[in-house]
Amino acid sequence: MIDPQIYHLAPTSWPSAAATQIMAAVAQTCQARGTCSVMLTGGRSAAQLYEAWAGLPEFCQLHNVHFYFGDERCVPPDHPESNFGLAMRTLFKHGVPPACKVIRMAAEQADREAAAAAYEAQLPDKLDVLLLSVGEDGHIASLFPHSAALLETRRGVVPVLTVC
Q1: pLDDT tens across 110-134, in order?
Q2: In the prediction, which pLDDT does 153 show?
Q3: Dist CA 15 CA 20 (whole Å)
Q4: How many Å apart are CA 37 and CA 117, to the nearest integer?
Q5: Which of 8, 9, 27, 136 could form a disulfide with 14 if both were Cys (CB 3.0 to 4.6 A apart)?
Q6: Whole-angstrom Cα distance, residue 66 to residue 40?
Q7: Quick check: is 2 in a domain?
């Protein structure tokens, strides 16, 4: 277990500063282990971050990075509210870097329990980089205050049906 690093950044400069820090962590992990797993977040802040990250010259040179999603809305991947769609429009607007993978949850499926189980089976045992953002109502990764999903102790992925 490592201690988290906390940065205090100005509102105008945080996207580029955060993108640079994330890029450095991904590059360092890839150099040390040959691969890196990154869990992406969603929301308005994520869009700003992803635009800045995609603009870094080193981004298109990434190799062996697997991108996952910490949450996804129950919509098709091309829907404006999809976090996968957000990443494709911003972070991967010029395409997914070579030898990298984007693994999405098929949250638009009618059987959300099955979709959650299938996605959980694709997740690595350990994530190298975890990006989280907090919604205005205090939710993180579709885990809303007082939600029954917060009580889950065995599964790594659960559908949050009240959000769909």
Answers
A1: 998 899 999 999 999 999 999 987 7
A2: 79
A3: 9
A4: 19
A5: 9
A6: 10
A7: no
Query: Hey, what amino acid is at 37?
Result: S
Burial grade of 80 (CB within 10 A; 0-12, 13-18, 19 or more): exposed
Distance CA 107, CA 105 (A): 5
Which residues are paired to 143 by β-bridges? Answer: 140
Structural contact between residues 87 and 59, judged by C-beta atoms closer than 8 angstroms? no
Rounded mean pLDDT of 4-31?
90
* Domain around 21: 14-163
Query: Which residues, including other chains, have CB under 8 Å from residue 90's CB and lie 6 or more apart?
Result: 46, 47, 50, 51, 54
Count: domains in the chain: 1
- Confirm if 75 and 82 have CB atoms less than 8 A apart: yes
Q: Which domain CATH number covers 88?
A: 3.40.50.1360
List pLDDT tens digits, range 35-59. 999 999 988 889 999 999 999 999 9
Query: Would 3 be classed as within a structural domain?
Result: no
| Pairing of β 101-102 and β 65-69 | parallel
